[in-house]
Description:
It is built from five helices and nine strands, in the order βαββαβαβββββαα. It is α+β, with helices and mostly antiparallel strands. The protein has one domain. Strands 1, 2, 3, 4, 5, 6, 7, 8 and 9 form a nine-stranded antiparallel β-sheet that branches. The longest helix has 23 residues, at 148-170.
Amino acid sequence: MPVKPVVSVFSADEALLAAVAGELARWLGGPDYESPLLSFDQTRYYEREMGPGLKRRFYAFSRLIDAAELVALKRWAIEAEARWRYDGRRRVNIDPGYVSLAKLVLATTKDNVHRIYLGEGIYAEVTLYFCKGRFHPWPWTYPDYASPEYRAIFEHIRELYREQLRAAKQG
């Protein structure tokens, strides 16, 4: 079953958020969901490299993909981050994943006990699982993704995805 691609983009430069979404749209079709501009303040991990005042947007895209495309999507994100570097510093962080009916999966280059190797240096993590009408976090889920605000975003994206699947069955 195809899955719905989602991408987290954060930067101190809001124009980069739209630029990344524009490049992704050439591959994945236009975004059919764009989150409000969110403060990226759950961690200071990225401030040293990217500076303060980071802002995030989540995008979901209209073209459904095979889950196996997650590797290519993450490889593209790594290359795109490198293209937008300035003075040796990363200016944008791009984290792709997908929503299925059962879960939110994120791609990462970092191995851990709860991550599955997909190939080409990319791992997959089930970050949220869907049960009893809601997304729920795991013990390893990042605090921002575990927040009610972020889970509501992914529940909305899941509903868009469910409607796409229903329309595809009828069409």
